[in-house]
Design a protein that fits this description.
Chain A is an alpha/beta fold. Chain A contains 9 helices and 9 strands. The chains are: A alpha/beta, B mainly alpha. Chains A and B meet through helix 3 of A and helix 5 and helix 6 of B.
Amino acid sequence: MVILPLQLNGATATMRGKTLVGPVDLTLAINGLTMLIGPNGAGKTTLLRLMHGLQRCAGGSVSWAVSAQVARQNQAFVFQAPIMMRRRVIDSLAYPLRLRGMGKPAARVKAIECAARFGLTELLESWAPMLSGGEKQKLSVARALIIAPEVLFLDEPCANLDGRATREIETILKIAQDAGTRIIMSTHDMGQAGRLADDVIFMYDGNVHETANAKTFFAKPQTGLAQAFINGDIIE
Amino acid sequence: MNGVAQGLWDAWWLIITFDADLYEIIFLSLQVTVSAVIIASIIGLPMGAWLAVNRFRFRRFVIAVLNALMGLPPVVVGLFVYMALSRAGPLGGFGLLFSPSAMIIAQVIIITPLIASISHQTIRDLWAEYHDLLISMNATRMQRIKALLWDGKRALLTATLAGFGRAIGEVGAIMIVGGNIEHATRVLTTAIALETGKGNFAFAMGLGLVLIMLSLLVNLLIHSLSRTERASTW
């Protein structure tokens, strides 16, 4: 099932009459890792939520190559603050499969395989809410990937993690990308963006300010604002 | 004071000698209350979860009514159930008046709003936490309710135990619909009321202690079985 490309035509997100993001015109192709960057309040999270369907589109449209319902079944989302279900790690991992009608024994077998792939085997019987921050985020990513989604959205997944945990998450993302998952994520970390991104979407003040190939963007951004952001200057 | 001590001793003696009448009362109390709690939980827990997950017109009004019903006067409930089950009432044909079934019906009406309201508050908090995750995972409405009830089960135990506490100590409604008939509908609370009326304060106090012990035991047993407050569980 190919759900991409994802097209946003004048897509707008509002809250209580105030425009948070948009109008955004964007096409996300089948391949690559797209990184959303920009200062706080630029609208990165809202745009990700808009694309995933967690945020209602107040104007314009967000469309996939297939129906929204089918597209939804083939994508997953990792939140900045990991949402841990009050279950053991094995059951948390198995949960998305159970939602899709897989029997408990089969789902647990898949969960064990998934845990082994992502270095979570030793934590399988631990209570998910009691894991460390890094372990929680690793579990979140593994839980999202267990359904082998075609598209994976990640909202600053390494925001509160140390270097080691960040490296582990990045390794998992590379494995997922090699397995054919299209990744769209946001970050504040320019180093991470440089390491992972194929394409960059630079956002500012609720709008897409610049889109470019990652190498081009970091070597020669088109706008002064993007250059200032890359340089680490404070932009308001 | 001696009378009280004597009454407590008498009650204790009845317990350790397995007095048939006393144990009949204890078992009927448990039977009626546990049945009512199970039925009310089956109705109240999903109702609370449903209210937490769904947005509809008059939702706030429904929640306000539910909260108000937590303070439903048992005597009034007893009166309504009596009228419904009496021969001239709409359910008179079932012949349930002055039976344990009538007492269970009254208790279910009293404790269902309590269980639903407490579970609604618990589930509402959990739903706020799980909302984005479950929506993102494309969980159906039923799957969401199921996940919330399952993951909130330890907190929901509080709702169930609150219902048990209210039901086991209830006297007004079950006195009216049960009739406090010996060997038929006499439970601990109605027996205490009867003994107090007869002036047997000490024996009534002894029965009261049995009631408190029973309530404590059931609470401890449920907490123990559900493994709450343990370091490795949530």
